[in-house]
Design brief:
- The complex is a heterodimer.
- Chain A is an alpha+beta fold.
- Chain A has 5 helices and 4 strands, in the order βαβαααβαβ.
- Chain A has helices at 17-29, 46-50, 57-76, 82-102, 133-145; strands at 8-14, 35-38, 124-130, 149-155.
- In chain A, strands 2-3-1-4 form a 4-stranded antiparallel sheet, with helices on one face.
- Chain A starts with 7 loop residues before the first strand and ends in a 7-residue tail after the last strand.
- Chain B is an all-alpha fold.
- Chain B has a single domain, classed as Formate dehydrogenase/DMSO reductase fold (Up-down Bundle).
- Chain B contains 16 helices and no strands.
- Chain B starts with a helix and ends in a 13-residue tail after the last helix.
- The chains are: A alpha+beta, B mainly alpha.
- At the A-B interface, strand 2, helix 2, helix 3 and helix 4 of A face helix 6 and helix 8 of B.
């Protein structure tokens, strides 16, 4: 069986959250797929610009809280303590919320090429992922045209190169 | 099996080692008799006062941070980390006092079932807020070992849009859960007092009084930590301290109103017992000094924060905060000890005086609290990053 082609991630740094938002909107308008951003804090409007669906963490937490309340009630039958069950349920709602949030897509991961970039401290990065090397080169050119600096192509299992 | 065989283990003589162990245990217990200042009249003595005071700090820290997050207050980032970090150390101190007073610490889960629930929720809330900061430390650490440790703690955080989307919902959810648990836990402790028939405790006003008092002492402790620890002193902006001073003022006014209301109820109800407690025993009894000092520290001193000039002077802010902390400790003392020391039978009346063990435990717990915070802020940033654009 032929192994899949290596994943190419094209990264470019924008000067500000506004510039990042504009770049994402432009790229989405050009039907660029596998688009993502990496920022040191949540930028208002990015979810909509990227077309992300609403987070389902709250629903999972609600379901976890209900399940835990039922389990707690069952444990204490016949003399169920409403207060104890409510507290247990509330605490486990929080734990489920944390667990679901952390088990989301590609999270957690303990090694990633992006860890060497400034996305966690000060940079506003946009990334385009593709398994076609030519598309990666085209994306690099497009990002540079949109004003991105430090444009880098990260290939899976290889060191980043600019 | 014969009866002799069944009873044989009971008659077997103890070996020398276990005899010495039992003797040492009995000697230790004998040495501790009278170690605390509490007595038969006031069974809940200084340990309960300190327990409630530390619990205020443990609950108020996360409550303050969570409520400010839910209210979307932009200045919260300056003080939220300090407030959240207070929680585990203050709760540890509170647990120490429970264990010391009640004994049999393995049964504390029954005594306070809300404590582990609150601990899990508040620690999850604090940790979630730390994940982006751990990622920054991972990417910026010069040493490989620090990068590895912070890398594990950051759980692969890359700041992607999807991660932030999940994070925002999870953080708000945990804030809501933690705030609800803090309010519930504080009210439950207040109701532990309120369900008794002890004058001064038997009041439905106590849950509100406890929550307001917790916010007062929690805000004051945040200011004290910010002012005293070098890791935070340089990082927290004056406008953040200014906002915190306004929270202290609002909480102090609520506590003052609560005190005024309980005096009014004592008069309006026509109860001789309540009237004697509120208008004679507390203001003119043997602990009158503690009562008037409490009113000065909790109600009078924070009024300085009406002045913007006073709020901008670090020495004034620190002095008022320390007074507010002292005032809340005295408030708990007046509630716990003064209400008990003159019971229903005059023949049982007795005073409570602190012992050297009481003082040592207070100093030790304060040292543990500040040392823990100082060490923690050597490992994690003392100020949360700005999360708004």
């Amino acid at each position: 069986m032929t192994p899949p082609a290596a994943l190419h991630v094209v990264l470019g740094e924008l000067a500000s959250p506004r510039a990042l938002l504009d770049a994402v909107t432009t790229l989405r308008g050009e039907h660029v797929r596998q688009l993502d951003t990496h920022t040191p804090y949540p930028v208002n409007g990015l979810d909509e610009a990227l077309g992300l669906s609403r987070s389902t963490v709250a629903w999972w937490a609600f379901a976890g809280g209900c399940a835990c309340a039922l389990a707690g009630a069952a444990l204490q039958l016949p003399g169920t303590s409403v207060v104890a069950v409510a507290l247990l349920s509330a605490a486990l709602t929080g734990v489920v919320a944390l667990g679901v949030m952390l088990s989301g897509r590609q999270h957690p991961a303990f090694a990633h090429p992006l860890f060497v970039l400034s996305a966690s401290s000060s940079g506003f990065w946009v990334s385009v992922s593709t398994r076609i090397a030519e598309d990666a080169e085209r994306a690099k050119t497009r990002l540079e045209a949109l004003g991105a600096t430090n444009v880098t192509i990260v290939v899976e299992h290889e060191a980043p190169h600019t | 099996m014969s009866d002799d065989a069944r009873f044989e283990p009971l008659w077997r003589p103890a070996n020398r080692g276990s005899t010495w162990l039992v003797a040492a245990g009995l000697a230790g217990a004998a040495a501790l008799i009278g170690a605390f200042g509490s007595n038969q009249t006031a069974g809940w003595g200084f340990e309960t006062v300190a327990f409630v005071w530390w619990l205020d700090l443990g609950l108020a820290g996360t409550l303050l941070s969570a409520v400010l997050l839910l209210a979307q207050q932009p200045w919260r980032t300056g003080v939220s980390r300090v407030a959240e970090a207070m929680t585990p150390f203050a709760l540890a101190c509170a647990l120490l006092y429970v264990a010391a007073q009640t004994g049999r610490p393995w049964l504390e889960g029954w005594l306070a079932p809300w404590l582990p629930a609150y601990g899990v929720a508040s620690l999850s809330f604090g940790y979630l807020g730390l994940i982006p900061d751990f990622a920054t430390l991972r990417d910026g650490s010069p040493g490989a070992r620090a990068r590895s440790v912070y890398g594990v703690l950051a759980l692969g955080w890359r700041g992607s849009a999807r991660q932030w989307s999940h994070w925002k919902v999870g953080y708000a959810l945990l804030a809501a859960v933690s705030a609800a648990l803090a309010l519930g836990a504080q009210s439950m402790v207040a109701l532990d007092f309120a369900v008794t028939n002890v004058p001064g405790w038997h009041s439905t006003l106590l849950p509100l009084h406890f929550v307001a008092g917790a916010v007062l002492s929690g805000s004051a402790m945040v200011v004290a930590v910010v002012a005293l620890l070098p890791a935070t002193r340089q990082l927290v902006a004056p406008r953040h301290v200014d906002a915190l001073c306004k929270v202290i003022l609002a909480a102090a006014l609520t506590v003052t109103w609560s005190h005024a209301l309980e005096h009014f109820i004592a008069w309006y109800s026509g109860s001789d017992t309540d009237a004697r407690l509120y208008f004679d025993t507390r203001p003119r009894g043997p602990y009158a000094l503690a009562y008037w000092a409490m009113l000065f520290c909790c109600s009078v001193a924070p009024q300085l924060f009406w002045s913007a000039r006073a709020r901008s002077r670090p020495t004034v802010v620190l002095a008022v905060s320390v007074l507010a902390l002292l005032g809340m400790a005295l408030d708990r003392f007046v509630l716990v000890v003064v209400s008990q020391h003159r019971g229903w039978l005059p023949s049982t009346w007795a005073l409570v005086t602190p012992t050297a063990v009481d003082a040592a435990m207070l100093v030790g717990s304060l040292s543990f609290f500040f040392t823990g915070l100082a060490l923690l802020f050597r490992l994690v940033p003392a100020v949360e990053r700005e999360h708004a654009t």
